[in-house]
Amino acid sequence: MTKLMDIKGYWNTSNDVDDWNFDEKNIWEGQILLEEDGWFEGLVVDPFSEYKLDRFIFGIFHEGKAIFLNKLTSIEISAPLIFNGTFNGEDYTGEFDSFGLSGNFRAGNTKMMTKEIEQNLEVQEKELETRLENYKGTMSKVFKDIYNTMLSLRTEASEDVLKKYDEQVKGNTIKRERN
Known about the structure:
By secondary structure, this protein is of the alpha+beta class. Helix content is 31%, strand content 39%.
């Protein structure tokens, strides 16, 4: 069963991996449709940006564990961004990368939050589905290729996100046992 969820993300461009201070203006927020296998798609806006149009997000989300989120907007506005977060009991924290012709590079830290929507569900779901289809119809060929590649690998990507999460949890457990 598909879930409709609100999502909000903060970011900073700090080179310090331990810098979890976020400016309230560095946010994006919107909604996602989450499938049972962890695949999601959604639209967000950056409310404090001069660019007021939707940004397309998609990826893998395992509630209470981890999220791998791709964020696409017009290439004139931003390079594609990849956000990775692990659940810390409150939200999903991690790093985000910028995706370019020469590969990915670390761009900063991120914090993401989600909340399931329970009221006016059908109306909001249909509206988001329509907006998503409209957005996908206007994507550039390059972005369609990125999206279609990830979509075709969604099962493997989901397994990879869970594997990395399990390795991280195991690594943190070993560290605690040593201390």
